[in-house]
Design brief:
By secondary structure, the protein is mainly alpha-helical. The protein has eleven helices and no strands.
Length: about 280
């Protein structure tokens, strides 16, 4: 009949932002919810994003290698990386705009109120502690499995070179850390994870594939760094699925990067090298 069904919204949409989840419908099982509906963006847009991410990662690794032991221009490096993070996020938003997908679809559940923010912050801290311990165990396993071919301690050489020195560099690094927490979670756990899940018709396909791209995006860290960061990305992916949103992961991601920068400044101040040299 005319008017029947018109203006009648699905249950998930009637709940508003409070009931919005990572995938439609919000209360469906995790194995089904991720792939219901069409793709978030055209397939070619996703392919373009992946090629851009990996291509710039390879270019960055080559550039870092070409510098050798020369000091890096940290302010320029941080500034360009901040710009890259936000441009990448804008490209993801452009992709979903072509399919008229709202931003809240990527962000997932938005629990209102100060208490909800405190809960997310507490869970982010707990997740971060557990993730760091698991990564330490994985790093040790890599050494035992590969012998001297893959050594996670070599990551310290690269990471310490990129660590801030002056107060201005530390401030800029904090801006970069917050930008990475927001933009990378939006792109990798919001856009790519959901898109891959819909392509593979499995939430776990989304988790694994987005984690692999996330690892490859950090090619400057070397083989060990890519493997460890891919595992870290998978943990963030699971966190996004369990929380049905990105806010907890964004907090944990920004927290991790910020604390890492502060720790490296202290280590450098006291003359401690991560690789133990």
């Amino acid at each position: 009949m005319p008017g029947e069904g018109q203006g009648k919204k699905p249950a998930w949409e009637m709940k508003g932002s409070e009931g919005m989840t990572m995938v439609e419908p919000p209360r469906a099982t995790s194995g089904q919810a991720c792939w219901q509906g069409g793709l978030l963006a055209p397939w070619w847009h996703t392919a373009l994003m992946v090629v851009l991410i990996i291509g710039l990662s390879v270019a960055g690794a080559r550039q870092l290698h070409s510098f050798g032991n020369q000091p890096l221009h940290l302010v320029a490096n941080y500034s360009l990386t901040i710009a890259y993070e936000w441009i990448l996020a804008a490209l993801a938003l452009w992709g979903i705009h072509m399919r008229k997908i709202p931003l809240r679809q990527l962000l997932g559940e938005q629990r209102p109120g100060p208490r909800a923010w405190l809960v997310d912050a507490g869970l982010a801290l707990g997740y971060w502690v557990i993730a760091v311990m698991l990564l330490a165990l994985l790093g040790k396993a890599l050494v035992e499995i590969s012998g001297s071919h893959i050594d996670p301690q070599k990551i310290g050489d690269v990471t310490q070179r990129l660590a801030p020195v002056s107060g201005f560099e530390m401030t800029l690094f904090l801006v970069l850390s917050i930008s990475a927490g927001i933009c990378e979670e939006l792109v990798f756990r919001g856009y790519l994870q959901q898109q891959f899940a819909r392509m593979g018709r499995s939430v776990w396909a989304g988790v694994v594939l987005s984690a692999l791209v996330f690892g490859c995006a950090h090619g400057y860290e070397g083989v060990a760094g890519v493997l460890l960061i891919a595992a870290y990305g998978a943990m963030f992916g699971v966190l996004a699925v369990l929380r049905r949103g990105l806010r907890t992961g964004m907090i944990a991601h920004a927290w991790h990067d910020s604390i890492s920068g502060a720790a490296l400044v202290l280590l450098r101040h006291y003359g401690v090298h991560l690789a133990g040299k």
